[in-house]
Each structure stands twice: as C-alpha cells, then as structure tokens.
Amino acid sequence: MSHPLSRIPFLGQFVDERFLEHRRRSTAAAGLAGGFVVLCVFEYRLFARHIISWDLLAILGTMAGVKIGMMLWYKLRD
Predict the structure, then answer these.
(1) N or C: which end of the chain has fewer CB within 10 A?
(2) Contact at 8 Å (CB) between 60 and 42?
(3) What torsion do the CA atoms of 31, 36, 39, 43 make, to the nearest 10 degrees?
C-alpha cells in the first residue's frame, strides 16, 4: 500500500519506507520527551511548591492511556 504523499509527483521521490519509519520514530521520541517534560514540571510543582497540578496529571494519564491502549490494539490486531 502506498502512502498518499507518494502519489504527489514532487514528493513521491522523498517518501519511501525509510522516510515513514523515521517519521514514526521521531514522533515516538517527541512524545516521550514531551511526557518527560510534563512529568518534571508536575514533580517540580508538587515538591517545590506543594501544589498538585491536576491538569498536568491529566495529560500524563492521557498519554499513558493512549500508549497502553495502542499497544493492546496492535497486539490484538496483529
């Protein structure tokens, strides 16, 4: 199955399996880095200021839930 971007004449020469794999890996790394930053800010606010940031906790919970949900989805569908 070809990627929709590969049908565009100019972009077709740049979009291949390696490009898609690099995009997948970079997106995963960005998600992990973002989660780590949110966790650090949450812990700073908790330990330094003694404030529980429920919004940051909700973001962390959402990220973890999506990650586990997608892992289960791919495990059951594979």
Answers:
(1) N
(2) yes
(3) -170
Torsion (CA) 31, 32, 34, 40 in degrees, nearest 10: 160
The answer, yes or no, to whether residue 69 has pLDDT greater than 70, is yes
The domain segmentation of the chain, as residue ranges, is 4-77
- More confident: 21 or 37: 37
Distance CA 29, CA 71 (A): 16
The residue type found at 74 is: Y
**Exposed/middle/buried for 72, CB within 10 Å: 0-12, 13-18, 19+?**
exposed
Instruction: Output the CA angle 34-35-39, nearest 5 degrees.
Output: 120
